[in-house]
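User: Before I run my own analysis I want an independent prediction to cross-check against. Here's the chain; please return only the structure tokens and, at the end, one sentence I can use as a sanity check.
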Amino acid sequence: MEIDLTSTAGIALQCTLATGVILLLRSYTKKKRSAYPPGPKGLPFIGNVLDMPRSWPCKTFSEWSKTYGDIIYLNMIGKPMIIINSKKAAKDLLDKRSNIYSDRPKLNSLGASVMLSNLLSRVGWDKSLVLLPYGNEWRQQRKLIVQDLAPSECHKYYGLQEREMRLLVRSVLTDPGSLIPEIRLRIGTIIVRTAYGYDVKSIDDPLLANGLQTIHDGSIAAEPGRFLVDFIPWLKYVPPWLPGTGFLQTAKRWKKTFNDATWKPIQFCRDNLHNGKMLMPNICGNVYQNAGWDLDADVERQLGLAAATILGGGLDSSISTAMSFFMQMILNPEVQKKAQTELDKVVGNDRLPAITDRPDLPYINSVMTEVYRIAAPFPLSLPHASNQDDVYEGMLIPKGSVILPNVWHMLHDPEQYPQPMKFLPERYNGQESEMEKVKDVVFGFGRRVCPGNHFAEGTFFSLIATTLATCDILPGLDENGNEIMPNPEAYVSTTIITKGSLFSRSTYSLPPRRLLEPDLSMSGTLFTSPSGLVFQCALAAGALLLVRSIAKRGPSNLPPGPKGVPIIGNVLQMPKLWPWKTFSVWAKQYGDIIHLNMLGQPLIIINSRKVAADLLDKRSNIYSDRPKLEMISLVGWDRSLVLLPYGHEWRQQRKLIAQDFSPSHCPQYYGLQEKEARVFVRNMLEDSKSFLPELTLRMGAIMLRTTYGCQVDSVNDPLLANGLQTIHDGSVAAEPGWFLVYLIPWLKYLPPWLPGTGFLQTAKKWRQTFHDATWGPIEFCKANFHTGKMLMPNICGNIYQDHGWELDADTERQLAMAASNALTGGLDSNVSSTMTFFMFMILNPDTQKKAQAELDRVVGVDRLPSINDRPNLPYIRSIMTEVYRFAPAFPLSIPHTSTQDDIYEDMLIPKGSVILPNVWHMLHDPDMYPNPMEFIPERFQGQASQMEMVKDVVFGFGRRVCPGNHFAEGTFFSLIATTLATCNILPGLDEMGHGKLPDPLAYTSTTISFPEAFPVRLRARSRQAQILLSEAPDNV
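Assistant: Structure tokens:
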């Protein structure tokens, strides 16, 4: 995305950043490099900020451990961060040296998944037990609650825990859809009753509801740099009426909720010390009783904060483990049966299990432990901080380092836990010592270990034992009576992990959890290091310049959109994953056309096909350009057809390939497309596990043969492999903000030896691959004009032939660039659509049967379908179109750019705006497509005009419409028709031989979106079908 660097804001931003870089480099040269632990090489000034993973940091850190070892060092704009990936290192440091590592990170520090923002102190959370710095106040709070939660005291609450878990099971048996609310209510009741002696009446009871809301608010504030004040701490002193200070109102609102959640329960205790309404025993009541029912103000304040932490710390983690338990029982019925056998043997059928049965139920304890291991609720634990410099195995851990224990990696270490991704309670052999090794990691380290771990285990044990003793846990059913299996890898990447996708049974149903987003989000914070101060000053100067420039401007009639903040506009609100879905939600508030300010760069989101047609089609003279991306330019991709600026060169390239891809010329390639589709199906019948590699090979073979006349037999053939690598490189480069040079374009002029310019080496490597992918096939053509190895017809061969086998240098360069786009543009999009087709045939067997009936009626069973049959197969074409509609390969199309100011419906679209058509939203508009999240080919009623309306959106807009759309449809049709005519498409099998259904909502959040990988089986429909496939020619 190109930022207008000539604007006042752009110049200010460049000057301030340049100043910061220069000052930092001067200080950098004066520093002596210390013996820090190894880690990825960072950039000047910002260190490893860009290396930080956006989701699932625990898994990224786990991968890094293979390169850097058990202890990894990251520089987060001058703030040291230490990732601990081994149990041994965690014990050595956090347990054995707990005098050094028991602190929490100070405010204004920058970290990974859990960091304390400025809002924590403004709201008051930083004074609660779990986030309190190590010291006297922390010891005082912990002492107030730890005695009641000790193993010797937990028995006082067994009856409460057992009662609530039995009520939970009874309620969910009555109403399967109530599982999540019921878990929240019952676990919340246990904790509120234990902490305050208050008997909760409902989920809306204020004493529980305020606690739940505070947990939600805290999860937002704990996200690293979620608010701008995390990045610029002095903003907390700005008047609350100033634009961009909405966080102050947010903090004020949250503080009231936090105060209510903390002090209203204490007030209840005070008011009911002697009237019997406060049920004893309870933690606060015991403290009041031991103090003669009268506490001094400071002790009462510490008690209120400590008690509030019990609810905040225990509720969501217990929900996470409960959900994981239900999921694993559905996926592992043999484990469920074994656990039930143990319960029947030990407890019998005449009573319900009690927590006191726990020592006699080693397999139930093993199931509990394996849930903790496979899905620890805190994958990265809570961060510690070092209070002095320390040396460990010759490596310096600086004072003030943020220490992140990677619990997920420790519990998925294959040397410790063979087959770590499998749920295997048997791995502990019923040995308590082996189970304790897991819980020693899950519940924290050193002096910051969770004080309520034994209590939490009692609640979880009671839930597991009560449920398994009384119920069978089964997968739920969809509307057609088909089982819905959970995805064991679909967890939400948050501070506390929870299941993000649906799984259910006839008894249990999990409604989706709504993940609420705050008004502002940001991945980055500031702190008090020298480089941090430089950056703050630089931003402050930039802010002042920008405010001055804004004061001189009049109001503009830009399209509506979310309110931004000074300097950076809406950068903080840009969604990291599946942006098309966020833009779709925004459409309900802001309408069909949305304006975003990305550091001064206007970004226009188009959410309706009418607006897209009005602008991109009818005004294509204005909207046919492409935005400039610096990394794309460094590699050279900006000279290829799809990314080329609109103009003479673009017209020249398009003209070279458009004729061969026109509807009248596509039939010359039908035989090739049909042949490769038949080979694909034949090979899949022999080895269904080769689905994705085989699909990639066949799509690549079609494109290379069509474009260059060359045949490939393997995905490792250099002519195909280089193209595939270029596609991969391009998908990385196309991610917004992936490289710092996108935000600071002048960095491309820096010498490549300068630290932080690794993107220059990356661009150089990618440029070579792109060169090989572009010119290798052209060299093949030129070397085989007359040898017979270049098979005619093909696009490049036709051009050379038309020019007497001799092209001038410029035309040859344009042909090479255009031809390389035919491969890269057509391969991955067809793979994505084909994967979606197979997925929905598995999930919709009735659709599959209906399509097969049409094929049998029109084509018969004595020959294979051909592309020429397409006009007579409206239901097959409807399936194709519904695939395109449900899962467009490019959910946000490819961005356009406006070449001049334009007015649309009284709204200004500035020159240079980046235009993003939200194709996904247009094709999921319920007014156009009722029940848009359902796969319904019948919605088109076999009418070509209705199908064309979908393809008019899928294949692009205006003058930038895909030139190969008719060719792509031929390939896709041939593969669908051939597969359905000859095979039944079935779900693949897992290792236990059970059918594994794909998740229809699990798509990648990439420029080209793919379904998550899933297994497929093909079964020949008849012996005749097998004969027809075997007799199909291998050559065309």
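Sanity check: The radius of gyration is 31 Å.
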